[in-house]
Amino acid sequence: MIKVTYVEVDGTRREVKMEEGTNLMDAALDNLVPGVDGDCGGVCACATCHVQVDAEWIDKLPPMDATEDAMLELTDDREERSRLGCQIIASPELDGLIVYTPAGQH
Amino acid sequence: MTETVVIVGGGQAGAQAAVSLRQEGFDGRVVLIGDEAVLPYQRPPLSKTYLAGELARERLFVKPAAFYEKVNIEHMLGETVCAIDSSEQVVSLDSGQTLHYDHLVLATGGRVRPLPYPGADHPQVNYLRTLADVEAMQDKFTEGTRLVVIGGGYIGLETAAVAVKHGLKVTLLVARPTPLGRVTSPEVGKFFEAVHREAGVTLCCDTEVVAIEDDGGDGKVAAVVTNSGYRVLADMVVAGIGLLPNVELAQSAGIACDNGITVDEYSRTSVDNIYAAGDCANHPNPIYQRRMRLESVQNAVDQGKVVAATICGKDKPYAQVPWFWSDQYDLKLQTAGVNSGYDQKVVRGDPESRSFAVFYLLEGRLLAVDAINRPAEFVVARNIIGKGLSVSVERLQDDSIPAKTLAELPGSTMLSSASVQAAS
Questions:
Q1: Which residue of A10, A64, A106, B119 has the fewest CB atoms within a 10 Å radius of its CB?
Q2: Domain count, chain B
Q3: Can you give the residue range of the structural domain that contains B351?
Q4: Within an 8 Å CB–CB cutoff, is residue B11 touching chain A?
Q5: Residues B105, B248 within the same domain
Q6: pTM, entire model
């Protein structure tokens, strides 16, 4: 199990425990974290599980693939630290990860 | 007194309407009634990862059970609404119970179109729409099973792809000249035809089924008889020949229906305080300047949101670019827009490389794209169609130009909605 913190636009922080191998979109849905929709069910087809990764953590994530990169273009508030939650898989190195849920999904 | 919203239908649209009501700040009673005995779940994985046994059952659900409790959405599952009394604002359930509503959302979805042939009630004939449907067929999804798939749409192709990967002997019967004939172009259809053949599927186009017979007299093996005289033996038949919108409840309440329940851009039906959303709703699309009925997650989600906003008195009309996806083998097909009526096709990339896009235009305006392992083309097309941007055919077909930049034209101008209207 690793610990991940989701920070909402208004600053609310929610700490969630995740099984290794599960993704950040599912963890958000299971733990009722608002701001992560996941309309396509996590197959990288809709870009509604957009999160912004904390600056301290962005370089610790495996790089995104071309599909994720393309799909992120659908989000209104893409920035350098944007990722799709469904593509971030919990691993021991990510214990303590902090992500921000964007305004667009609230 | 607090208001009550009753939602009939526990699929993606019904669930979204319920969730969005709370997000929009509705603080009255929300009652979600579904005739399946399970919480709302996502249907797309049923013919993909769930059928393949790659997705855990609990991952199918739109929201976990705790969510409904937390935001106070009541659900009545395994219950069927049999009548609406719109003058008294009451719905009646099969169980005999009645419920008062202030607002009624019809998210009744659709049911599979039954095979119209003699013998179609054979015990080995399956359909694929519900979780129960998939679970009923999963134990026969084993190596060596002879499977005949009837129908060359998304469901048929996805089922064939999963089956052949699991070692089933798959025959796919397609009534049209190419697969996906209703939704795409012959070029894309032919591409998928070749892909399935290569994977080991026996695929027959222009093939109508005329009857299903029992082979052996014990109901264990079906014989699918085609117009070309073939008699294909099947341990299992899966039929995917389309969906019929569930409109009967609405019709019997005097609500206008025409290929679905007729709604306006706010998802309002012809009867006050009654709305419809999702697969069952025939709605106007301002981008295409015409009415359509869509069977998709995108439409279910977006109309669920529109219904909730309308009930909450907010002005959020429906104005979305439809989009769809299908996963088969190593291929992700992503479609943005609806290509009906196109007069020009532009192919970008080489189909041989299993990564290409086909753009569909009408009078120079982009209607739709089919993007196969080309997410960037899908994304840019969604933006172009949604914003009514103009495109250059030369640039669309020039694969050396990054897809991302296709929305930018030298001297390009964003068309106003008035000029889009005039152009269509």
A1: A10
A2: 3
A3: 330-423
A4: no
A5: yes
A6: 0.93
